[in-house]
Amino acid sequence: MPFNIAVALDQHGNTTSIDEPARIVVYQKKQDAWLAVQEFVYDLEQSKGVRHMRQKLAELVADIAKSSQIFVGLSVTGIPYFELEKAGMVIWEFEGRPAEFLSYIEDKEEEARLARDKMKPIAVPAPRQTAPGRFFISLKEVQENNAGITSKQVLFSFVNKAEFDQLEVVCNHVPPWLETIVLEKNFVCLKEQISQKEIRVTVSKK
């Protein structure tokens, strides 16, 4: 299965963070060689404010998503992660030059695709009301099974509508998109480590 992989690079050809002025190079594999087929030079102009930065970022991500399925950066967190995930991009973090990791990513993505094809479909969980205005959901099965269903597909719409007073989420790890939307909507978020592989996140309105 062919992949187009977009990589954020600095002036020396090493990976960099998407929030730094740099360039995005899109690579495609042709006859066992990775070739640069497209390039975007960008600057999110963060000095002009968050709203301007988000607009520039949304435009950049839309351009990347037209030609690529995978994005690689040195560090991808916060709003950039949220925008890339919203566009359906698979996100990787790597330090170094593209030649050092492009084939590795291709192999791992193909392994994941084959594993998903073999997985039996699981029931999509939904928040369960435990009391008026209070809801509970476990994301553990979704996060553990890698069955082609993401935590964002399960829960984003519910959290975004904010039709709750309190939401309790049990998960293996806190999804980055959840942390981002909690900040955007100014919710209160409490995290409790229940065990080594289990976290309870309680999201409430102020």
UniProtKB/TrEMBL annotation:
Pfam families in the record, alphabetically?
Answer: AnfO_nitrog (PF09582)
| InterPro entries according to UniProt | Nase_Fe-Fe_AnfO
UniProt name for this protein? Fe-only nitrogenase accessory protein AnfO
Q: Species name for this entry?
A: Dendrosporobacter quercicolus
